[in-house]
């Protein structure tokens, strides 16, 4: 029994079948990649996991509890954090302030009205935020305006914010999209470090095969809304069905 | 100190000093001098400064922090005023129950409107609040006349019960508003040479409450709650996926903001016990938006500054008429004088609103950060030169990272 | 039955005005992405063009008629309008009488110019700014325009009568089999409705059948893509804005006889027109028109005594109430496309 169990999930948009009969089981503390050509339904599946979309059929269980019908913030409180394709951070705030928000969310829950006590008095929150920032090599930028950071740093900050919540499942949506090779390699190293150092399950959606094969322990190939194969990376490489699905795609690694 | 860091505490002290010394500071010109018309140190105007300051501080908590632009905040001001006057009619002329009632009533009203309006964001939220405020305004004029006294406005009369106070004074006139017996209208005039400084009870009551309101707003700004509100403005998506429920935050700040507006309305009625529906009109809502923007939305001191500047200029500009203008332009040749008077006439007296509208446009277009940003830009301009090289170095090193 | 028909008719003229203003608002929002709080002011300017033209055409010179004297024995002053002097008494009097329709000829170029100046001088700088800034700056502009009008025309409403020939009422009831004088409807309101229908029809036809209109519609559907096609968007933006200004202005010109123009009529109509846009669906032109008429008629029903006796004050708030319900139940509005500004 995996920590994330997706069973028979289907989703239609009008006449378009975006997902049908998707089954997925992600083992705890593993890295599971979902790959597939454009329009295969990767993002739709991800959105079903985090509560942005509600599937028409099937069930999504996280740690034995259904996530369906819960709002994104409730699902996050269950222990699922999400990293977006383009970094979603609080651009108007400083790096440290960005970090403190997930820390508060972790400590106080979805809503805590404490309008009077000063932030600066919250020593435990600050200490926790600083330790995560230090892990991510962002500590020296703690007072920087986050919107003025480089794209790679924004991505780092976003991952740091997710990690600060100590989630049990981290969802990454094309974390290297639009990155230069060097940045991509840095991100791979970073993710490896996270995988090795923390007790965390990672589900990664990726286009770049290089990233997938250097990180994932299991890979699910999605095509036209249904899982084609699921296996360990070594077997996915050169799998005839996968080649077929990627025919015409620019780079099947 | 008081739970604030050094910078905020100094700011609070400065505001405290300004407010306490306002009767001197706003009265720099001798009573008989030609410049006396620019004095602002009389009770009525000073009261308006601080009352609208409270209104703008409250509006800023909502708009400045979360970015939700309410176009119906005057409705809460109106509710506050009506509740206060009803307290004067039913209970007593003491301002304490009136102010408490105005804060509670407007809070409940804000809870109601906020609960519905906050289901939407962006311009939909603006239009919803506008619709609610216009509804309240229309109702106050029509069906709710038994409560609001329609077009005449709600006033205190000799027939009011005032169960805890007196219906009429011994001389048979309507009693006046007071705090523990000190009448709001009573003013002590201190003559120093040719200056006459006025110290008004009502002003100092309002000022004390305004300082408290300002202090609370600083605390909210610096609290985790305030941080969440700023996060809402910065990125709602991220906040949602960070396990925080946005709605209770926005609702809480909407209610707090509505209570500030109600408090301002209650104080207005405490200074002058009447309330009219026009206080709820959307132009009044627009005015508080302007005050906040002009001063600097999202800054601590901005709304107070904005309220002061607008109320001051409203007062001064409205007083100026063509004969004053003629005397100003008297140094010019006659034709030019006429032309100058003709042009400037549009902007003063009843034309004050024209100036206000223009100001609105200029600020939004050129200074979206308001006076506070303007001040920062100026100070940077003066400090720029010695640091020029250092600044260039740091901008160059950034992209390389 | 007769009461219902009467209320529908009564709602038509206000509904027409809402629809015309909302049409322009939607056009501007859809293509330019700008929330124009000064649109009501354009409507008001239109109404004051009617006022000005009427005044202008009635401009007179004074002569003294020595043959007649008033009770003090002074010669009687005779005012002769210039148009009478130029075109003779018959034609001159007709021109003055028909000054409101004539004002349309003046309003089209003036409003186009006003729209052009507004868009080039102010609005264009706000395309990329947040909606809040757009609302605020156009709100400021609305105040300025309103105050200028107030300065020159005063605060009181100015009566601007329709032509004599259209002053009376039309017994609509007789036409459809009711007793005489049951359903009577003023001629001018009929004219207004017909005019509005014509104007709406021409805007739609323009958008439907011209290349220009096609680009505008494409722009409303997907602004960014159209921008990428290499089409000069700027010019079209300006033209669209000017067109919306003309539509609002003409709505104002023709409304002058129905409701004597005053300086704050723009604001009054603006708030309601925004509500109309939201109800119809932000970005949907047919939605704006439909919602305009719908709300106009609803408002007229709500002001029936029978309804007011059950729900006092409902006529004052019906439009807002409907808007609130719609916004909550169906945020994209009656005919709005899915996903357009839903949040």
UniProtKB/TrEMBL annotation, chain A:
Does the keyword Acetylation feature in the UniProt annotation?
Answer: no
Q: Keyword Coiled coil, does the record have it?
A: no
- CDD domains membership: ABC_Mj1267_LivG_branched (cd03219)
Name the Pfam families on file.
ABC_tran (PF00005)
The record's GO CC annotations read: plasma membrane
**Which GO MF terms does the UniProt record name?**
ATP binding; ATP hydrolysis activity
Entries under InterPro entries matching the protein: AAA+_ATPase, ABC_AA/LPS_Transport, ABC_transporter-like_ATP-bd, P-loop_NTPase
Q: What domain of life does the UniProt record list for this protein's source? A: Bacteria
Q: Which PANTHER family match?
A: CONSERVED COMPONENT OF ABC TRANSPORTER FOR NATURAL AMINO ACIDS-RELATED
What is the protein named? Answer: ABC transporter ATP-binding protein
Species this chain originates from:
Pseudooceanicola nanhaiensis
Automatic annotation (TrEMBL), chain B:
Q: Listed GO molecular functions?
A: branched-chain amino acid transmembrane transporter activity
Q: Which residues cross the membrane?
A: 9-26, 46-63, 94-116, 123-144, 201-221, 248-268, 288-309, 352-375
Q: Does the keyword Cell membrane apply?
A: yes
Q: Which UniProt keywords apply?
A: Cell membrane, Membrane, Transmembrane, Transmembrane helix
Top-level taxon: Bacteria
The main place the protein resides is membrane
Q: Membrane topology type, per the record?
A: Multi-pass membrane protein
Report the GO terms under cellular component: plasma membrane
Which compartments is it annotated to reside in?
Cell membrane
**CDD domains reported in the protein's UniProt record:** TM_PBP1_LivM_like
Q: Which residues form the signal peptide?
A: none
Write down the InterPro entries for this protein, in alphabetical order: ABC_transp_permease, LivM-like
Q: What is this protein called?
A: Branched-chain amino acid ABC transporter permease
Automatic annotation (TrEMBL), chain C:
State one Pfam family annotation: BPD_transp_2
Q: Which GO terms describe its biological process?
A: amino acid transport
- Give the membrane topology, semicolon-separated if more than one: Multi-pass membrane protein
Any coiled-coil regions, as ranges: none
Q: Name one GO molecular function term.
A: transmembrane transporter activity
- Sorted alphabetically, which InterPro entries does this protein's record hold? ABC_transp_permease, BCAA_transport_permease
* Bilayer-spanning residue ranges: 16-35, 42-64, 95-114, 190-216, 237-258, 270-298, 310-329
Q: Name one GO cellular component term.
A: plasma membrane
Compartment list: Cell membrane
- Major site of localization recorded for this protein: membrane
Q: Which domain of life is it from?
A: Bacteria
Keywords for this protein: Amino-acid transport, Cell membrane, Membrane, Transmembrane, Transmembrane helix, Transport
Q: Which family does the record assign?
A: Belongs to the binding-protein-dependent transport system permease family. LivHM subfamily.
Question: What protein name applies here?
Answer: Branched-chain amino acid ABC transporter permease
- Organism, as annotated: Pseudooceanicola nanhaiensis
